[in-house]
Amino acid sequence: MAQAMRPQMMGARVSRVEDPRLLAGQARYLDDIQVPGMLEMAFVRSPHAAAKIRRINVERARQHPGVHAVLTVQDCPVLLWERDTYKVGQPVLADGEVMYVGQPIVAVVADNRYVAEDAAELVEVEYQPIEPVLDMRQAIDEKPRRVHPDAENVFFHNEYSTPGFEEAFEKAPRHLKATFRTNRQTAVSIEPRGTAAMVDAASGRVTVYASTQSPHRMREDISNLLEIPEHQVRVIVPEVGGGFGMKANCYPEDIVVTAAAMKLRKPVKWVSDRLESLESDVHARDDIHDVEVAFDDQGKIIAIRDHLMADGGAYPAYPFSGAVGETSLASRVLTGPYDIPHLATTIDCTYSNKTPLGAYRGVWGPIASFIQEGVVERVARALNLDPAEVRRRNMIRREQFPYRNAARMIYDAGSYLESMEKALDLIGYEDFRERQAKARAQGKHLGIGISVFVEPTAMASSEAGSVGYESCTIKMEPSGKVTAALGLGPSGQGHETTMAQILADQLGVPLEDVVILHGDTDSAPYGGGTGGSRSGPIGGGAALVAGRQMRERLVKYAAALLEAGEEDIELGDGKAWVAGVPDRAISIRTIAETAYTNVRKIPEGLPIGLELTARYLPKRPVTFSNGTHIAEVEVDVATGIVKVTRYAVVNDCGRLINPTIVEGQIHGGVAQGIGAAVLEALRYNEDGQLVTTSLLDYLLPESTDVPRIAVEHLETPSDGEGGIKGMGEGSLIAAPAAVANAISDALAPFGSFVDTLPVTPKDIRVMTQQK
Ligand code: MCN
Ligand code: SMO
C-alpha cells in the first residue's frame, strides 16, 4: 500500500488547538460546572499534627440556616486503603484521631460555600494533642513513637546490591561521601483540586465531575470504595488546569462529595482553596540520601552506595504512596546516563505526622538526577578535572545499547554523549571559564552546571501502577469528519493537537476534521490516563494503530469504488486517488457516505460504518528519553540570591509529534526546576504545623526568575509505535540538578557544594561564610 501522507502533520509545528479557548478564558474548569440546586461543601480540617479526637459536636452547624448536611466518619465510613500493599489506610473523614494538619474531619454541605464555611466554624472538636512524629531519621528508629500503633514506622524497606559490590567498593582507590536532602514540595496547579457529584433521579446513575488525570481509574475507585456498580458511575473530566502528578490520586474529598450527593440526592460540589491545596494535596520529594562513592584517579566511577529515605507522611496516598515511588524508582535510575558497574541501595520509607506523599512531575527523577549529577561534580572537583570531561569518561556510549544498568533496568537507544556535546556548544561552554574568571575579578560569582539525564517514560509494566496500554476509538461520521476518543486525562499537554496530528496523517484528512475527545468514561475507551509521560508514546501509539486500521478500511473502499488495486491507492487532502492518476479520485466524504447510507455498495467483507477501537501495549516495559540541561547562574554572595542567567537544553524524546508542544513542556519544566532548586519548600515547625500556607511563603518561580531557554532536539527513535518516546517530565528531572551544579560551581572558591534542595539565600550565606 502506498504510504503518501500529505500534508505531513507528524513532526509539524502545529499551533495548539486547545489554546484559543484557554487563552480567551472560554475553557470550562471544574468550578465552572453549575447545575440548578447545586450545593457546596466545606471541610473542617485538623489544626493539629497529631491528636486524639475526644468529641465532635456538629449540632450547631446542623442548625445553621442553609445547611443541608453535616457528615462525620459515621456518615461516610470509607477507608482509602490498598490492603495488599500497606498496613494502614486513611479514613476519608477522621476516625477518632488526626494524623496531619489539614486532614479532613467533618464535611458541611450548604447552599453555597460561604454558608458552608460559616457553619464549619460552628463544629466543635475536642482534641487531645499528642507528640507528633516529624523527623525522618528518628521515625525510622521508631522515635519518639510509632505513628500508627499497629504498624512499624518504616512501611517500605528494600535492599539491593550488585554481586561483588563490597569488594569493588573497597578496592577502589578513591572514595567520597555526601548526604543529599530534598525538601517537601508540591505541584501547585493553577486550578486547584475539585469534585462535583450528582445522581440522576430516573436512572440512579452517579455522575462525578473530577479534576483528575485518570478518568477510568477514578471511576473504578469511586465504584469500589462506595460500592456502586461500575456501569452506574460516570466520570467526566472538564478542563484541568494543571495536574503534574498531584491529580493522579483518589482523595478523601472525592469520596465524601460523592457520598454526600448520593445521600442528599442533590448535586454537591467542592473546590479546594489555596490553603487547603497546600496542606491536603499530596506533597512530594521529602527525601534524604546518604551516599558513598568509589572512583579511580581518572574519574571513572566504580560504585555508588545509597541509603534512600523518604518521609511518606501520615498515610500512603491512595492508591499508592509517593514515598515508595520516589525511592524505589530513584534506586533503579541512580546511575543515570553513566556506565557505573556497581550499586548498593537500601530504602526506608517512613510514616510521619505530615501530609501524605504522592507524585509530582518526575517523581523519582529529579532526586536521582540531583544525586547522580552531584556525585559527578564532586568527583570532578576532587580530581581537579573538568566536570564535562568526567561525564565523557563515564557516559554510556551508543554501541552499548540496549544497556542494562546496575539496577537491571534496560535502556533502549539514546544520544547521551551527543546531547551533552551539543548542549555544551549551545551554551558556549568553551568561553565560560574565561567569562567566569573575569567576573570573579570583579567580585561576581558566576557558575555553570551540567545535568545529563535519562527519563524513563511510557511505563508498560504492572509496576508502573497503570494499565500499561492505551485505547483509541475512531468514529468517522457520514460526512467524513472524525472524532477520536482516548482514555487520556490531559491537563495542559496538548493532546487534542498531537493526537489529531497523528490521525490526520493516517486518515488523509485535514487536521481540523479531527476532534479528539477524552475525559468522559461513557464515551472514552478504557485507558490508563495521563501520567508517567505515557500519552505521547502509548496514547499516540494507540492513535497510530487505530488510524492505520481505519486507513486500511478507507483504502479498501477506494480500491473497490475506483476499481483499482489497494496497493495503488493513496490518501491525502480529504481524498483517495490512484497513484499517478490524480483524476481517478474519490473524496473521503463519499467513502464515508457509502459506509453509512449507501451500504449495498460497501466492499465485500467490510462492516457497516466507519468506527473502530484499537489498543496499544508497548513491547518494552519502559523506553528511555534523554538529554542535557546546562544552566548558568550568578550568585550574589552578600544576599545569597541566585539568578539563573542563561539556559540551554538538548532533548531527545525519539520521534517528535509536535516540536512546539515539546518545547513548551520543556520551558514549563525548567521553570518548575528553578523553583525546585532555589525557591519551593513546604516547611513544618517543631509542632508539626505547616508554616508555608500561602503563596507568600511557598515561593513559586515568576517569569523574571526564568531566563530565555535555548532548546534543540535530537531524535533517537524508540522501537515502539511511531518511534515516539515520552518527555513530559524530563525537564523537571534535569533542571534542579543543573541549577544546583551551577551554584556549586559558582561557590567553588568557598569549597562548597549544594547538598539540599531548595538551596535558600540563608543556606548560601552559610556556604560562603564557612571559610
Ligand atoms: N510529545 C510529542 N512528541 C514526543 C513526545 C511527546 O509531541 N516525542 C507531546 C505529546 O503528544 C504531549 C506532550 O508532548 O502532547 C507530552 O507528552 P508525554 O511526554 O507523553 O507526557 P503526557 O502527555 O503523558 O503528560 C504527562 C506529563 C507528566 S507525567 C506530568 S507530571 C506533567 C507533564 O506531562 N504534568 C503537566 N506536563 C504537564 N504540562 C502541563 N501543562 N500540565 C501538567 O499537569
Ligand atoms: S508525576 Mo506525572 O503525572 O507521572
UniProtKB/TrEMBL annotation:
Record Pfam families: Ald_Xan_dh_C, MoCoBD_1, MoCoBD_2
GO molecular function: iron ion binding; oxidoreductase activity
Entry keyword set: Molybdenum, Oxidoreductase
Domain Aldehyde oxidase/xanthine dehydrogenase a/b hammerhead, first and last residues per copy: 24-131
Listed name of the protein: Xanthine dehydrogenase family protein
SUPFAM superfamilies, A to Z: CO dehydrogenase molybdoprotein N-domain-like, Molybdenum cofactor-binding domain
Cofactor(s), names only, from the UniProt record: Mo-molybdopterin cytosine dinucleotide
